[in-house]
Specification:
- About 3% of the residues have low confidence.
- A hairpin with a 2-residue loop joins β3 and β4.
- Helix content is 50%, strand content 13%.
- α5 runs antiparallel to α6 and α7 packs across α11.
Length: 325
């Protein structure tokens, strides 16, 4: 089989790529012309191939290192690399501003600027930015309604009350559309999230649950939520990079957060995909690796990256043209 030339590494569209990696306690390097990660097994070193042409992003956790040669090959393939802490959560490389993940994006300035120009054409207008945030929330609710209603998630044990879910989403949608400021919208979003946690707890019979802050939520569901959310952030960062949108041009998470648009994009799928899997895995007693694998499979099966990219594209073009509802 002929190797893929460097010039062809971006042939597979990011929205169609199958892989997102979280790695820990390993080294990422180039071996025999391939990017691999190396783990130690006693006196032996085990080499595992990373199919970079079919990978969207890589999160490097505790005890990892990456060589210059590997970063060169990852950049050629358009793979985003993020540094994070153990279990896919905090901290990361610290810059002059507090950020959730330090993303290293491929240095390519030859991507089309169509969506960046559309985005900035409305971003400095508070009213239009709110319209864009409302559109994003509407898409989020629609995606969640579809995903939580699928047969496979119910067969897995997530027996959510669909009638109650529909009533909740309808009420949340109306309340959000009536929001007059981004702060009002964030308040409604917080109410919705709290209600979704309540439904999820009931769906799996989890018992008492309180969403803890990072490092304080020691129960399995909280740990899995933190871990899984960073997988969604990886896809969010990839979606923004593919469209050429700077991470600081958020519509919901504030103009002062450098990675705000990544969080906006991740919000499109976090509750729909990560939240139910966190509670299912917590009830089953899954290890983090098993939980992570389930999340990645669900994100791929639901075409979450496709959905993120299409949503951001639609918001950019429709808002800039004044056609957004």
């Amino acid at each position: 089989m002929e190797p893929i030339a460097a010039s062809e590494l971006k042939t597979i569209l990011h929205s169609k790529r199958a892989n997102i990696y979280y790695l820990e306690h390993c080294r990422v390097l180039v071996n025999g012309g391939r990017v691999e990660y190396v783990t130690d097994a006693g006196k032996r070193s085990l080499y595992w191939n990373i199919p970079i042409a079919n990978t969207t992003s890589i999160l490097l956790g505790t005890g990892t290192s990456v060589t210059q040669a590997a970063m060169r090959e990852l950049a050629k393939a358009g793979v985003l690399v993020g540094f994070c802490g153990g279990g896919g959560t905090p901290l990361f490389a610290v810059n002059e501003m507090d950020v959730e993940v330090a993303w290293l994006t491929p240095q390519s300035e030859y991507r089309p600027t169509e969506y960046l120009q559309a985005w900035v054409s409305f971003w400095f207008d508070d009213h239009l930015r709110l319209k864009a945030a409302l559109a994003l929330q509407k898409l989020r609710l629609e995606f969640l309604r579809v995903q939580w209603g699928k047969r496979e998630i119910r067969e897995a044990g997530f027996q959510v009350d669909l009638t109650g879910l529909g009533t909740l989403l309808d009420a949340a949608g109306r309340a959000m559309q009536n929001s007059e400021t981004v702060m009002h919208l964030l308040t409604e979003e917080a109410r919705l999230t709290k209600a979704l946690f309540k439904l999820a707890v009931a769906a799996v019979g989890y018992g008492d649950f309180t969403r803890g802050k990072r490092g304080q939520g020691l129960d399995p569901a909280n740990r899995f939520l933190d871990h899984g959310n960073y997988l969604a952030y990886g896809l969010g960062a990839t979606a923004c990079w593919v469209l050429g949108l700077p991470h600081g041009l958020a519509v919901l998470h504030g103009k002062t957060r450098r990675g705000g648009l990544v969080f906006d994009a991740a919000d499109l799928v976090k509750d729909a995909i990560i939240l139910p899997q966190a509670f299912l895995s917590a009830m089953r007693g899954d290890e983090e690796q098993a939980f992570r694998r389930q999340c990645i499979e669900s994100l791929t099966r639901s075409e979450s990256l496709d959905f993120m990219i299409d949503s951001l594209k639609d918001i950019a073009t429709q808002t800039s043209k004044g056609k957004i509802a």
